[in-house]
Write a structure and sequence with these properties.
Number of helices: 4
Radius of gyration: 13 Å
Shape: globular
Strand content: 15-25%
Order of helices and strands: HHEHEHEE
Number of strands: 4
């Protein structure tokens, strides 16, 4: 099943941050991490968390439907969204401090 179909079928999928990111968040905050790329951000659940924690975030995803939701959820926060696949992202090397 494709993500587009999954999103249409279950609008509540992927709304909570993953446990792995929640566990790793304190380490991100302790380091010199300022700018984070969320590769394949979907609906922006991790972008939202990271931006609220004070990071500058770039979210990329191939599906515009996911990005539309992400833009709404992250309105007013320091997040930029770009429609892009994971292999051809237009983010220059070394322009972010971390990738999730």
């Amino acid at each position: 099943m494709k993500w587009e179909e999954i999103y249409k079928k279950d609008y509540k999928i992927q709304i909570k941050p993953s446990e792995h990111l929640l566990e790793f968040l304190p380490k991100l905050k302790q380091g010199k991490i300022k700018k984070i790329l969320d590769l394949g951000c979907g609906r922006g659940r991790h972008c939202l968390l990271l931006a609220k924690e004070g990071f500058e975030v770039i979210g990329t995803d191939i599906l515009e439907s996911g990005l539309e939701v992400a833009r709404k959820n992250c309105a007013g926060l320091n997040v930029k969204f770009i429609k892009s696949d994971m292999e051809n992202t237009p983010i220059p090397d070394e322009s972010v401090d971390a990738v999730v």
